[in-house]
Every structure is written in C-alpha cells, then in structure tokens.
Design brief:
alpha/beta; globular; seven-stranded parallel beta sheet
Length: 492
C-alpha cells in the first residue's frame, strides 16, 4: 500500500472538485482545508451563474458562515483553493487549454459532485446535465498523468425503482452508451421512450440520471480506480467547528422552514415512513475515506458506499417533524408567518381538501389585502410552489427504503484511532441531538433578519395567527351558509 495513513495520503496532493458551490461541496472545502492543511492545492470547477463570474463565486463560497473563519484567519489555506472556469456539460469540462494542461499535470484525486438536483426536469434534460457530465469527467480523468482515484457523488435513491438497495451497481437492460447517444441526438420524447422500455419505475428524472451515471462509470471507467458514495437526505452538521450548520435551498430544509414559520400546515406524507437522513460532515468524511481506501488498494475499484443512517438513527418522518417542530417552538424563526402547527395525511384527496382550507383560502384573502398595500409578497404563489415541491418530495415521504451499509460501516475501521476522531463516519447520536444544535449553528435562525426582539416576535406571530384563523373560519362559515341556502332553495 502506497501510504500508511489518511493524513500522509492527502499530504502534498492536488485535488479537483466539481460542485464546490453546493451544500456538500462547501463542507468538502472546509473539512479538507481544516483537517489536511498539507494539501498542496484544490482546484474547483465553477461556471458563471446569474451573471456572477467564477472568481466572484469563489468569494461567495468563502463568505458562507462555515468558511468565514478560514477566510479571515487562515488566508493561506484559502489561497490553496484555485478556480478553474468551466462546465461539466461541455467537452473537457469547458476548461481552457491552459487550465486543462494544469489539470492533467497536477491533479491526482477527483471528486465529482456537480449535479442538477431539480426533480421537475425532463428525463433527457436531467440526464444531459448529470449523466453526460459524468461521462465528460471520465474523459478528462483519462488525460491525467496520474489518477489516484475518482470518487463520484451519487444518491442513495439512484435505485429508487427498488426498496432494498445493496452496495452494488444495478444494471440497465441497455448499454449506457445507447442512452448517451439518444440524449444527444434524440428528443425528449424519444429519450423517455427509451427509459420506459427499460421497465424500471423511477421516482423522478433526477434519480434516473444518477442511476444512469453509475452505469456509465461501470461501462466506461471500469479500468480506473473509482469509488461511488450514495448519501441519503443530507442534513445539518453533526460536529466540526459549527455543529447544527445547514443551508437553505434543499427540499427538506425548505420544507422544515415552511413548517417552522407557520406557512405549511398540511403535508402529504406517511408519518411511519422511514426517513433516512445523514449529516453533511459524515457525507464528506465518507468521500474522503473512500478516496484514500480505493487509491491505496484497501478497497476494490467500483467501491460502492451507501452513506445512510436508517439502521442506526431508525428515524421516521413523523419523528423528524416532531423534533423540528419542537426546535422551532423553542426558538422561533425570524420572519415567522404564524404559529407552527402541521398535520400529515396519506390521502391525496384529504391533502387537497385540507390544503385548500389551511393554505389557499387564507392566501386568497391576504393576497387581496397585500395587493391593496402595494406589497410584492404573494401567498398564492408561495403555496403553488410548495405544492410542486410536495409532489416532488412525496415519494421520499411515503416509501421506506432499506439500505445495505456494510461498506459504509467498514470505513471507520480502516482508520487509526486518532484519525477516526477527526474523520468520523459512525453515528453515535440521536436525531434530537443533531437538531438541537441548529438554532446556534445555522444562519436560518439569525434573529437580526427581522430586527425584532423574541417577545415582540411572539406578539406579531400571535396576531397573524389570530387573523389567519379568523379568515379561515369566516370563509368556512360563509361556505356552510351558501350550501344551506342552496339546499333550502332546492328542497324547501
């Protein structure tokens, strides 16, 4: 074996990361820089986004709370992170000739985490972004003078067509190349026909794109040192410099905020469904150990890690909601709309009825009021967005998946005791303990956002709750009177 320890392995290495601006990617940078200060260099591939150029995006990344201390107190570590402008959807990842030359000569470890996580895209669009991007990463990895390892960030739900998922790649009935050809040369309709012919029932296009990406790796990179890490639903940090740290923009975080702020009163879900969450720092640590393990021959190539917690946390969705509800009741969120109170229903019809009463009736009345005051806030728009999100999340909130985790639990056993304390993967906490750190660790609870004291915030929330409750009950009363009037006209 080339190296005795994790620390020695990463010392002096040049690493290439895609997806560094995302939730997992940001914590990747923090842990690598903090725990392995002898890393030589980290190249991050960034594309322009919303008129913000790649170099400016690097500054945005380091302005995030989790990286601010490194940026302020250890600028020499920040300088180790260098931007390569590019895009995984393009040949050579869109790199310039000079950047491609540096990449080929210097990089030996590749972490590919860039992905479009939208659940609403077509199968072809999602695959073009994610599966074709993976194909492009494989091609540039073959140009490296030396590749120690390529680690791909998949998802535990890449195989959502089954409910018991082992740590192996499940095969497509067709060659992966056939899908690549069809997505580039065909249409949305022809690509979906090809997907349908596979007779595999995927939750959404995103999950399929990850499944296809794994098949592409197996088909086109089987001769390379490859590891695949499959995180489940990624949540707040467990340990590190800021326990409880989490970012907005992920479906489950936004849903939790909607509940905590009193916007969301009804959820289409099964409270008894196993809800598999995994802390983001554990996810990053699993990647770091997997890369070292595959590169040094401790684990075979095409090493699959189901980075999940179902067999340890044993968390159900109802318990998740109860814990997060308790957190927000004890620590009111800034800009809270009304008092939090949520119920889950399994029936789609009952969800429609209850969401109409609890969400849309108040939204119509309050939007009329807000429009008269010149406000740009539109509650109807927010609830339509929530309904789309609920439709996308419902399969994950109503289906219990079981994951084999032998490889995942075996990661920590590969480390010496000192490194196991720093790069940990064994969960020894409850979800209650994870969640209790969120008010201190997350900017979501930054009470300067609404410039109110805690007592004043409670008063405002109570006033809004009373107003919304009155609106719902008054409207219901009018509806009952209307029904009574119609019946009396028809039958009396």
């Amino acid at each position: 074996m080339a190296d005795d320890s994790l620390t020695k392995f990463y010392s002096g290495k040049t690493i290439f990361i895609t997806g560094a601006a995302g939730f997992i990617g940001t914590y990747f940078l923090e842990i690598l820089l903090r725990c392995f200060p002898d890393i030589l260099r980290i190249y991050i591939l960034l594309r322009p986004k919303k008129n913000v150029q790649p170099l400016e995006r690097k500054e945005e990344i380091f302005n995030k709370r989790i990286l601010k201390s490194i940026s302020k107190y250890h600028p020499e570590l920040k300088e180790k992170v260098q931007v390569i402008p590019g895009d995984t959807s393009l040949p050579n990842l869109g790199m310039s000739e000079e950047d491609l030359r540096k990449f080929c000569e210097e990089v030996t470890i590749v972490f590919h985490g860039a992905a479009g996580i939208s659940f609403s895209k077509s199968f072809r669009d999602s695959s073009l972004q994610n599966a074709k991007g993976t194909d492009n990463v494989i091609e540039v990895c073959r140009k490296l003078k030396k590749l120690d390892v390529l680690v791909y960030t998949s998802t535990a739900y890449a195989n959502s067509h089954i409910t018991t998922i082992q740590e192996k790649i499940y095969l497509l009935p067709h060659k992966a190349q056939r899908f690549l050809d069809e997505m580039e040369n065909g249409t949305d309709e022809s690509f979906e026909e090809l997907v349908s012919s596979s007779n595999l029932n995927f939750i959404n296009a995103y999950c399929f794109s990850k499944f296809l990406s794994e098949n592409i790796l197996l088909e086109k990179a089987s001769d390379l040192p490859v590891g695949i890490v499959r995180p489940s639903i990624v949540v707040m940090t467990w340990k590190g410099p800021i326990p409880g740290s989490v970012e907005t923009g992920t479906g489950i975080t936004d849903l939790s905020m909607g509940v905590g702020k009193g916007f969301v009163k009804v959820i289409h879900a099964d409270r008894d469904c196993i809800f598999d969450v995994i802390p983001v720092d554990v996810v990053v640590n699993a990647h770091i150990i997997t890369a070292w393990s595959v590169a040094t021959g401790r684990s075979p190539s095409m090493f699959i890690v189901n980075c999940t917690s179902g067999d340890t946390l044993k968390l159900k969705f109802g318990k998740y909601l109860d814990v997060m509800f308790k957190v927000t009741m004890e620590n009111p969120l800034p800009k809270t709309f009304q008092e939090a109170d949520v119920r889950t229903v399994k029936s789609k019809l009952m969800y429609t009825i209850l969401s109409t009463y609890h969400h849309y009736i108040p939204a119509v009345i309050l939007d009329i009021y807000l429009r008269s005051k010149g406000s740009k806030l539109r509650l109807m728009k927010l609830y339509r967005f929530f309904d789309r999100m609920m439709k996308e999340l419902h399969p994950f909130l109503s289906t219990s998946f079981t994951f084999q985790t032998d490889n995942f639990h075996g990661l920590s056993k590969l480390l010496n005791p000192e490194e196991r304390e720093i790069i940990y993967t064994d969960l020894t906490c409850t979800f209650d303990e994870l969640a209790e750190n969120v008010p201190k660790g997350s900017e979501i609870f930054d009470w300067e956002l609404d410039n109110l004291t805690t007592n004043r915030r409670r008063e405002v929330v109570l006033q809004r709750t009373m107003l919304v409750t009155f609106t719902k009950r008054f409207t219901l009363l009018l509806f009952i009177l209307l029904i009574y009037f119609l019946i009396s006209k028809l039958f009396f």
